[in-house]
Design goal:
236 residues; Methane Monooxygenase Hydroxylase, Chain G, domain 1; mainly alpha; binds protoporphyrin IX containing FE; 11 helices
């Protein structure tokens, strides 16, 4: 049965809502009770599938941001950063849901995963490829404006747009970092710290990746600024 005015879209589904959102396909992408090794497979799948969708949107927004930067339009690029940041948050917060699984129940879910590993997440891997390109564009913008990174930070009011771009990049890096740390705690809480993942990588190796930064220069510049201030004070 369908409600409201006449439905006009073609395709599978009872209503235009179902046909446009493609709910029949979407909701058939999770195993049903007859196929579960454990009922928490649904929880596990929903968190992963929704994360992949947010990462897909994040990738599309980063690629549009790159396009704007390449075309010399930082104003429009800056407008997309809140979207990218929200996508990362929407992957961060659902990690809480995974902690609703008991470690023992997760061991039953794990049997269904084969060698499935987050290392093969298409969403993360596409972001991992694209984010360094943002840094390349940022460096080109610095060169075009004729300033070093330190000069940009010391005279941020004169280079407002570029400074805001630097801070937006840092924010992306910080949120990706926070996701990694949070994910690591979920992993420790679910399977422990001294075991290996489904592809045989020790969890300790995952822990070492926590320190990874996409834009290390934007973190190091903070130290340079502090040292610059100390040196200036020494001169007076
Ligand atoms: C109970 C939940 C989870 C557990 C126990 C878990 C476990 C792991 C483990 C052990 C690794 C290391 C690689 C391996 O051996 O497979 C890993 C990596 C990874 N996982 Fe998860 N994971 C969980 C949830 C998630 C979720 C919801 C996502 C979202 C997409 C995700 C994405 C990733 C990514 C992207 C990596 C690679 C990290 C990097 O390269 O820095 N994981 N996970």
């Amino acid at each position: 049965m369908s409600y409201g005015p006449d439905q006009i879209l073609e395709g599978a589904g009872e209503s235009d809502y179902e046909r446009y959102i493609r709910t029949p396909e979407l909701l058939s992408l999770q195993k049903g009770p007859g196929e579960w090794l454990h009922r928490d497979e649904l929880l596990f799948t929903v968190v992963h599938q929704t994360s992949e969708l947010w990462l897909k949107l994040a990738t599309s927004e980063v690629s549009q941001t790159l396009d704007y930067l390449e075309k010399g339009n930082p104003k429009m690029a800056l407008r997309l950063f809140p979207r990218i940041l929200l996508c990362i948050s929407y992957c961060h917060d659902p990690l809480d849901m995974l902690e609703q699984m008991s470690p023992w129940d997760y061991q039953q879910v794990r049997r269904a995963l084969g060698h499935g590993s987050g290392f093969d997440s298409p969403g993360f891997n596409s972001l991992r490829k694209l984010l360094p390109l943002l840094w390349e564009q940022f460096e080109k913008s610095l060169a075009n404006e004729g300033v070093t990174l330190l000069e940009l930070f010391l005279h941020h009011e004169e280079h407002d747009e570029l400074y805001r771009l630097a801070e937006a990049l840092l924010e992306v890096d910080e949120r990706m970092y926070l996701w990694r740390i949070r994910h690591f705690k979920v992993v420790e809480r679910s399977i422990g710290a001294k075991v290996s993942g489904t592809q045989g990588t020790p969890v300790e190796v995952l822990g070492r990746l926590n320190a990874f930064l996409f834009f290390p220069e934007l973190w190091e510049i903070r130290t340079t600024i502090t040292n610059h201030a100390i040196a200036e004070e020494g001169e007076n």
